[in-house]
Amino acid sequence: MISKDINLAVSILQQEGIIGFPTETVYGLAGNIFSEKAVKQIYEVKQRPMFNPLIAHLKGIEQIDTVATQIPGKAYQLAEAFWPGPLTLVLEKQAHIPDWITAGKSTVALRVPAHPMALALLKQLDFPLAAPSANPFRTVSPTSAVHVENYFADQLPLVLDGGECQRGIESTIIGFENQQPVLYRHGSITVEEIETVIGPLLVKNQNNEAPEAPGMLLKHYSPATKFILTDDIESIIENRIEQKIGLITLNRTITHPAVNTCIPLSLQANLAEAAANLYATMHQLDRLGLDLIIAEYMPDTGLGRSMNDRMKRASYQYQ
Ligand code: TXA
Ligand code: MG
Predict the structure, then answer these.
(1) List of domains in the chain
(2) Looking at the whole model, is its pTM more than 0.85?
């Protein structure tokens, strides 16, 4: 059921149930981090492998000292600069943080979401919320309540409706190795923004075999329709008249007999707007029964890098 009833959300979560809820990045599948029952349900509903740990969502920056330990100075600087907001910090966990949300790791991933409804909900709870993106493992993340309902209608008692996600790309994940900051996942806060606060950052987000952030598997974020990412849409569509093709561009409209639908992500070529529209566009095209979706690379800077990262993973099986 889709609803804006925060009190209902509170009572389901207090009774160890799980719900869909909005954040500024994507919708999450939320449960009490201290409830093994709730967390198990999250893994089951999402069909997520148990080696892939969850992010704990906090109500405020002050809660960091109740869940993490040995916190580097740069982590505090980042939290102060970007929380509430789309930045996840991977920090050493305190002993009472259960292994079922960290997949047995000694670290826990933390963030304070910026969506007003998410914050209002967290403020009424006396526990943080474990929440992965509210989509089955390896599929496109949801950026509206309807996307969540389409995936999980009969498995969730409630999807809290907070409208369309403003950011549209997951949080950026930063951990620390020997006190040095390391980026594990590109996301809604750009590398440039982070480097402005703490200086140079090591980028380490490709590892497929023993991933530091296991969600960074190469095949991920995939629509059901065949998905190709390219620098040269025109030459791919040239000889495909008989096919029904969907295009994702930054700001161009391309017409061709094989092109069923072409969606520019931002007519002004604004990367923040394009990022906010990316997953919604992938969902939309995926429901049209197309033979193929072709997307063009975004400029490889700022949010363009995060978008290219997601689209590369979406197209991985077709390369
Ligand atoms: O924007 C977001 O971060 C959204 C919203 C709902 O907050 N959540 C999200 O969660 O994207 P999920 O589960 O789809 O991705 C979490 C990522 C995974 O790649 C996971 O491997 C990584 O965080 N992660 C969690 N705990 C970790 C840890 N202790 N060390 C390294 N990576 C961790
Ligand atoms: Mg996810």
Answers:
(1) 2-203 (3.90.870.10), 227-318 (3.40.50.11030)
(2) yes
